[in-house]
Amino acid sequence: MRNGIVAAKLAKSFHPASVKKIYENTSKLQFKHSDNINCLFNAMRAVGLPEVFFFELTDLYERKNFPKVVYCIHALSHVLAAKELSPAINNLVGKLTFTVDQIEATQQSLDASGVSMPSFGNIETALAKAQEEEDSPEHKERREREARDEYFRQNTAKLVQLQAHFRSKQARKLLANLKQEDRVKKITKIQAMTRARNAKKKMNNLRNAKAEKVKEDRWNELYSKEGLFIKLQARIRGKKERSKYKARIEYFHNNMDSIVKLQALWRAKQTRKAYKNLTTLQNPPVKIIQDFVHLLEDSDRDYEDDLDIEGLRQNVVETIRKNSSTEAELNDLDLKIALLIKNRISIEDVYHQTLNQGSGSTTTAAYYKKMKQSNATGAADHRASTASTVDKCIAPFVQRTLDKDAREKLEAYQQLFYLLQTNPNYLAKTMYTLSKRSGGTILKVLEQVTLTLFGYAQNVREEYLLLNLIKTAIKLEVGEIDKLDEFWRANPLFIKLVLQYVRGAKERQFFRDLFQPLVKFVMSDLSLSLETDPSFIYKSLIRDDESKTGEQSHRAHDASPEQITADPDVIEILKKNTEKLQEITKLFLNAIMGSLKMMPYGIRYIAMQLKETMNLKFPGNQDEILKIVGNLIYYRYMNPAIIAPEGFDIIEGAVSPIQRKNLAEIAKTLHQISVSRLSAAENNESLKNFLIESHKKFIHFFNDASSVEPSEEHFDINEYMDLTQQKKLSVFISPNEIFQVHDALLGCVDDIISDDTDPMKAVLEELGAAPAPSDTLHKEVYLNLVNRLPVKESEAQDQKLKQLISDTKRLVLVVIKIQSGKNLLDILESPVTENEEAFFKENVALDMRKLEERFDKKKTQEWREFVNSGNGPHVFLKGGSNDAMKGESMTATLTHTTVTSNWKSMGDTGGLNFDRLSGSASKAQSSPQSNDSPALAEIYYKDLQPRKQSFPHARNLLDTALGSGSLFFGSGSLVCLKAETAMNATFNAVKMRTLENMAKLEDAGLVHKDNGYQDMLNIIANDMLNRHKRKTQRKKEAESLKRTLTNLEEKAKYLADQRQSYHDYIDACMSQHKKTLKVKKGPFPFTRQYFHLKELQKSGNVPQFGSYKFSALDLYKRGVLISMNEHNPKQYGQITLTISSSEAGIFTIEASLLGVKISEPMELRLEDLLQSQYEGVQTMLLFETARVNVNLLTYLLNKKFYV
Hints:
By secondary structure, this protein is mostly helical. The chain contains 48 helices and 12 strands. The strands form 4 sheets. Strands 5, 7, 8, 9 and 10 form a 5-stranded antiparallel beta sheet that branches. Strands 6-12-11 form a 3-stranded antiparallel beta sheet. It starts with a helix and ends with a helix. Mean pLDDT is 75; it is low at 353-368, 374-390 and 870-966.
């Protein structure tokens, strides 16, 4: 009952109004339960239970006097029964029995609390007595007073409001009485004031009328002297303004420095604000571009540099195409040489066959029959029937194979591995796909082949390409990570590539220079111990004690960690080891941070790519990303060299366990520093502080180490890298590895190729299924890497597009200097006013005149220096003293062309006219032969073309002007307008041309009309921000192109020499063909061949290497001739074919019908015939009429001419 829940429910049963809410939480006794007891008190008061029977709150809540609570409830039951609210309580005497123990326990409890048991027997009497006292007058009065006080207390706000209302009513009544007394006085006062105002008004009217009359007279007098007053006022105002202006000017002069500074500060502030908008706004408006348009005024030097770079690039592309053509020719020549060598062997076979079997017709006919049968079955089937499966697999890799299918397969593999090496996406995606599929063995093979493919990064090109592969793998794998924490749990594939890459000779030398002194220092101290594990130190102490004394140590073997860390000896040793560890680790740390310049470029470049890729994927996590970079640089790269120095040639000899343990402690501490792992040092405050302090330094080092120049700049690599190589690119790899890579690519083809135009798809389709590896194909071969893809025609298109963008930018700059608008499209489509057109023409003409003056001065000086140097052109005169001038080099005096001269002619002649000659020429002009009209000199230039670089007189005027200076448009824009049309160009035409260029760029997807050509403004703004960078880039690009062009020219020379040697070898082969293996006998007398030779001898036209005459029927029977168009076999006996050779390897074939030529003679080259035979061509046409068997024709020519 202590929580009052039962009491509250009791109260609610007989007086619900007194119980608003019962707090029924029975989990534990709370103070809120006292509200339940108070509800019972209110209910008992409401039913009239005398206060004398009430118990105290603490009697029940704190169980101080529980009998009184029971007594109160008994009294309440009598009251309720009297009011018929509940039945009377029953008498339970004799109905309940209690044990003696219960009674004694209850009595002891009462005695302990000091509470006496009330008398329940006379409760009715006490209740009646209490009610009588309640009914007495004094008690009633007291009760009424208490009730009134309670009422007032409950209605205090209403009583206060009623009193306030009454007081306000009394105040209003008093105020009304006072107002009634003052009203009469106020009315009298108001009447008096009204009468006074009316009187004043009347008096003022009289005064005003008089004043108006006086004023009117005065104004009339002033108007009569208006001119005089105006002059006087003007002079006074002028004097005042002059005084103010003079004072202001004087103030300006006195504060000139301050004013200039203020103006400069204001202009600087405005400029900075505008430039900030230019740099920060994603889409800068036209107004900002107009404010900084001067930043893009091309000087002539800039424009010349652009033209030079464009010229160099075109020369490079042209040279590349020539070299590609030469290489293709060399490949054909190489094949022809091989075919000629093979044909030489075939000739020897024919000769030996003739020697062994005789030269009769039976043998020859049998051979022709055999050849016909062989041709019928087909060359491909013949090869398939004679070659085993292994031979087919190895055939492509046999040096100088003449099997066409094998050579085509070899070329496909060469192209395949060239693509794998130069396009990192293929290998990266393949290995990533296999790793997701749990590729197992084939993935390990690919990892091994990767380093083989890139030659273990032994040269610049292969290292550059391998770094590109790692870069692509990083982007691919980081792109698949959703959270940064996942990287720590992952095992990225690119890490395996990195670990294989960074174990080369450069890294070993770097580690040796960096760690050798430190490792030797650590290993030299045999007593050194860097153990920081308290448990290990404690066990070492026990071991030492027992080893020294031979008795059990006093230290407990099963001591708890708290007991171990509290051991004094452990504390002392741990402190000593920690201090020594920090000291040595600091030496390693300082050495590592000081090795930044020595660190190989490769690992720094990989770290940079990892950092940049992570920043793009997870922006705003710089600290965590640098920890990942630090984990790569230290833990993956440097840590193994510290732990196992003998494996990196840092030291020689073995490392003892104690030394290994010390090195491992140092390496572990450095790793904790790199990733800020403090959990291992929670119980070692000194070491923890050291880790925190060192981590900050290490993070700065990682950030610096992962910031290097791009790989193209470091290795000086450009897109023409492979095209400048004189030595053929190759890899040393086994056929088994080739087939395994082929099979892996086929298994991942859908993941690595998404475009049907991808060259890899075409190569894989050409190769077909990958052959199965074999034990006999494990020997490595040299596989040349060849790019069979043609030089992209799109490169020229890209250059044209770049030039279009450049021209359009210059035209836009011209337009926005004249007009303004809300966007570029609005400016281009707005009409041109007469003032704008006049302003445009005026500034164009002014710029042209300035350029002309500068050009004349520069060109005159250049020409004089050129002529005086002795390299000048030879000058000849027509007329006058021509003989005196013949063959002599003369010095010319140049004069400037007039302003009205034709700009186009100036561009064609370099803007110079030669109308006077000095020296002998001036004498000729002043000679008697040219009295009135001087002789005209005509200048001819000999060998001037090679000296263009010495004096570029034929270049356009604007291309060689002396900088833009104060030009309004800039020379670059004028060049874009074309010199020959700039003077006649209109502003409207310029805008039309700009719109045409914009339409072309829109078709190319570079600009969009929907946003008002904002894309072009963004391009211009970017050029403004990167102008200096562009100049530096232009310079580097020019140097790179020059080096590339030099390398290409050297390669072209090398290829030309190789081509000449090939031709010489072919000529030698052809000369060998003319040497017969035996002396040929003459033809039988009175045969067709006999009379044919007699006829040739009579005419004196005997071919050097012989001539043979055959009937078509004879060749038809031999199978050489298959058919002849427009002739049936019955006519073959009337048709003769004559085959002659006056030059080695070249045959002339003539055909006649009954002595009448059927067609013009044709020339057949032996190498072309062998090429057709190599390509599997079975038949060919002669004279576009006769179809012959290629193999039998080759045999016939070899037998007749070379055997």
